[in-house]
Design a protein that fits this description.
150 residues; 6 helices
């Protein structure tokens, strides 16, 4: 049962991980959001842009590799090969770990150039930079909507 839950959720995760989000959540908008919310000066904006560009360069090949692994996972599911499913999901997890580390290191470079006041705005747990997703706190940074009464 657990394998099927993983197998069914992986296509969604892979599509979100493999492609940069469009619209409000894209990397350029992360830069704009941080610049506005933190009041970044030109030097800090350059530092952020450089850190995110380095991150994108480092993960570009990883995204292609992840897409290939996803295809291997699909083939393993269709073939009923549980051992291959275990192997491929471990490789995917390894790529996810590497990507998280790359993002954290990019944010470390940026964070080091912030003022004390800006660091306070980022949050004790670096919510704006790390957030719940892999691309930084874009999801946390948006104001939350309350659902309409029913």
């Amino acid at each position: 049962m657990k394998v099927w839950q993983i197998a069914l959720s992986l296509p969604l995760v892979a599509s979100l991980w493999a492609q940069p989000p469009q619209g409000r959540r894209g990397p350029a908008n992360l830069e704009n959001m941080l610049a506005q919310r933190l009041g970044l000066n030109a030097t800090q904006q350059n530092m952020l842009h450089t850190a995110l560009e380095e991150e994108r360069t480092q993960i570009r090949g990883m995204m292609q590799q992840r897409q290939a692994l996803h295809q291997s996972l699909v083939e393993a599911i269709k073939a009923g090969n549980a051992d291959q499913i275990d192997q491929v999901t471990q490789q995917i997890a390894s790529l996810d770990q590497q990507r998280s580390a790359i993002h954290a290191k990019a944010m470390m470079k940026f964070y080091s150039g912030l003022t004390a006041d800006q660091k306070t705005k980022v949050g004790q747990n670096l919510e704006m930079l790390l957030g719940p997703g892999r691309l930084g706190g874009a999801a946390l940074a948006r104001p939350r909507r309350t659902p309409p009464p029913q």
